[in-house]
Amino acid sequence: MEISVSYLSSKYDIKKTIDLIEMTNADYIHVDLMDGGFVPAKNFNLLEVVTLLKSVKKKLDIHLMVFDPIIYIDDLAKLKPQYITFHIEATKDIVKTIEKIKEKNINVGLAIKPDTNIYELIPYLSFVDLVLIMSVNPGWGGQNFMPEAISHFKELLKIREDNHLSFKIEMDGGINKETIQLVPKLDIAVSGSFVCTSDNYQARIDELKQNH
Ligand code: DX5
Ligand code: ZN
To answer: What residues are in contact with ligand 1 under a 6 Å CB criterion?
Structure first.
């Protein structure tokens, strides 16, 4: 299992939090971008995000919680992220958005909220590299893991296996050393507050790996 650390909830400022994540063996930095429309909070300005992240050494795993994700792709592509993931609920232009991300040679992820039917993903699963299952309602760090995510995960594993597909499965929200045990076979775990509100980021990452 790979680990993607979100810097959204931390006791330090964003820069210091990113520096601390860089010192661990986490696989990715998870970049949560919220537009104040798809989710209530707004937390970015594109120019600032690109400036902040352009010198980061870890691979970037960008999670767009925005309407019309397609309009952000040209700017975010400058960061050469490993993944850009957008929400199936956020746009009518799902295929166009997938194509736009692929044109930039970036892996594409599709995210799904806890109360969206997993079968809505089916038409797109052979075109994406990743599915991000939300285990909280998107918008805030530090929420409790929603058990609905476990059935989403099991259904998706079965669909992947039955259809010989190869997308990765990532889960985001309320992941800690207990909830990680509920999702064996998960490919990528996102962790925000469990890692970033502690004094020892590496120890928390180790706990996630040991309990999986
Ligand atoms: C929630 C974000 C998450 C969040 C995870 O809307 O997408 O990535 O930062 O934080 P924790 O791990 O604290 O739930
Ligand atoms: Zn996220």
So the answer is: 6, 8-9, 30, 32, 63, 136, 138-143, 172-175, 190-194
